[in-house]
Amino acid sequence: MTTAQVHTVHGLFEEQARRTPGAQAVVCGAEQLTYGELDARANRLAHRLVALGLGPERPAAVALGRGPELLTAVLAVLKAGGAYVPLEPTGPDAVIRHVLADADPVVVVSDEVHRVRLADATARPVLCLDTEADALAALPSTAPDVRVRDADVACVFYTSGSTGVSKGAQIEHRNLLHAYRGWQEVYRLTDADRILQTATLEFDVFTADWLRALGTGATLVMARRNFTLDRTAELRELHELVIGERITVMEVNVHLLRRLFAHLQPLGLELGSVRLLSVGAEKWYLDEQLRIQRYLGPDVRHINVYGVAEAAVDSTYFDPATLADPPEHPERLSLIGVPFPGNRVHLLDPQGVPVAPGECGEICLSGPGVGRGYLNQPKLTAERFFADPARPDLRLYRTGDLGRLRPDGILEFVSRDLGPETAAAVRVETLLRGHPDVRECAVATVDLEPAREPALVAYVVADPGRAPDAWALRSHLAERLPADALPDAVVPLPGLPRTRAGKLDRAALPLPAPRTEPAPSGKSGRQPSGGKGAAGVWADGDNTPGVWAGLVVLFTVLARLSTSTFWPGSTDLRLVPQPWATVFQLLYWAESLGAGLGLAFLLLGGPALARFGRPRGLTVLTRLAVFWLLASWWPQDNFYRTTDPRNWSTQGTLVVLFNIALIASAAVVVRFLVRQAPRPGR
């Protein structure tokens, strides 16, 4: 049976198990299974899942640690006709609860160590493979009789893209089969390969790794340590694993690759038997790729891959060996090459019209690899997926990324779409990467004030042993860019924040420090600012601590002096004996101070709240709520003191109005604090 005749993902594996049942299928530390053993275990578990109600178009969550049983569970779900939902059992509670609530799986496959946590997040049964091992061993080792179509969903990837909404991308069997054929052709996979798997279960690259290996008859080597999530995992361990297991093919994210080569190069180490190094998940610059190519030599292929989960992981690839002439500034380029076989790439303007070669446009993907849409997200599906005008039978997916087609036919990745600031951000980022002291950088738009335009902020990480300050980097940019193209701030960081996938976590980038020096006179447009070793944001108001203090004092004094004007007699203490008169005077000043703090926060508190990355509407509402919580005591007590205590209707109205407002404001603040900030995925 040829690959083209197989119509399910697990069918690829089953064909290999029939052909070479004794071949090594998966290795994880001391554990290993042959193709025959893995097939038999998956068949037994599949019978149990069918008995629990799993079938075609029905999801089952797989939440297991790293090891052969993880592959057993994935294959069993597919053999039962279901779609597996990969769920990292050690992930954040909020993520686990969201995925289980949204996917509503028939069953959750896990281990006893995770059962309580998972059972607390769903009412669905949790099947623990370790505690039910004896019962599972008694089930038939042949596959259950389940009819699965190529159009059935094989898996659901949960990812947070540019929309900031966690969503389940539904990937059909035919999508993954198409992706597999592309990998097989481009990667030149054989059954002699030993493919390293380092990706976390919940990310789409995990699926790509096992499919490339088990569909080909190769050996999948699973890293026991999670080198992306586990901050204690040393890169020495990863290198020893590559050498000891004679790895031939490995895919890593850009961040992990940089860390690995920071370990290899000072010691002069190499990668042993590796013949193919595939790198993805983030912008990888050509100078880095060429530098690694020179270090490892011509026998190791280096491929920069680009793709999204919604289009079955990888859509384009770039091999520097295909580059006719090295460009003049490779540090400014991230080349993602050409589409994988059978894929199509479109560069469209905001109106959906194709852009001319050389112009920047949104990268849109089409081909058999594009999935059917998002689970329980019809609005997002309509926004992101639409018909391919050239091929009505195919769908287009809008990535939110920008690219351009070079004269040599190679696709260049430009940036995430940052709106009107995109062009300026790209220029700033490429120039900063050219600075000899900068190792990494990122440029992002930051919401400082809900009523103002987002600020453009550059974040830089210095090379080891170097410490460029904001002034030096600003001068570097100012010599090469016009004033209106400069960022609002340059912020040095010890390291860029990362998501669980190892990608840049834009939502966790810190706000720049407030501006500390006066604005240059006679200048217009965007102006960078900041003192030595720090950076600030040019704004209409100088939000330094001195400004805060000055406004608080001003508003406090105004509130205290105006009390007698608004509420005559409310602070009359002539009949109050000492020391109580002094105590009440202090109370009145405290009320006025609350009013001063509230008014100052209403004017200047935007950046502090924007730092949390919450939705703009909730941020504005919280700003008003904090203002009310701080300032309400000043009018509240004065109204009480000037109202006839026997006028119960007025007294009751005041109590109800003020206290309901206080409770509502507190509820808004609590909602703001517990609201999860959006996090991007691969």
Number of helices: 20
Unreliable parts: 516-543, 677-682
Distance between the termini: 34 Å
Would you tell me the structural class of the helices and strands?
A: alpha/beta
Proportion of helical residues: 25-40%
What characteristic shape results from the CA principal axes?
globular
Largest sheet: 14 strands, mixed
Number of strands: 24
Radius of gyration: 30 Å
Portion in beta strands: 15-25%
Q: How would you state the average pLDDT, rounded?
A: 84
Task: Give the SSE map.
Blueprint: H1 9-19, E1 24-28, E2 31-34, H2 35-51, E3 59-62, H3 68-79, E4 83-86, H4 93-103, E5 108-110, H5 112-119, E6 126-128, H6 133-137, E7 153-160, E8 166-172, H7 173-187, E9 194-197, H8 204-214, E10 219-222, H9 235-244, E11 249-253, H10 254-267, E12 276-280, H11 286-296, E13 301-306, E14 316-318, E15 335-339, E16 344-348, E17 360-366, E18 373-375, H12 378-384, E19 385-388, E20 391-405, E21 411-416, H13 422-433, E22 438-446, E23 455-462, H14 470-478, E24 489-493, H15 545-566, H16 580-604, H17 606-610, H18 616-631, H19 633-641, H20 648-674
Parallel strand pairs: 1-10, 3-4, 3-5, 5-6, 9-10, 9-11, 11-12, 12-13, 23-24
Antiparallel strand pairs: 1-2, 7-8, 8-18, 13-14, 14-15, 15-21, 16-17, 17-20, 19-20, 20-21, 22-23
Helix pairs in contact: 1-2, 2-3, 9-10, 15-16, 16-18, 18-20
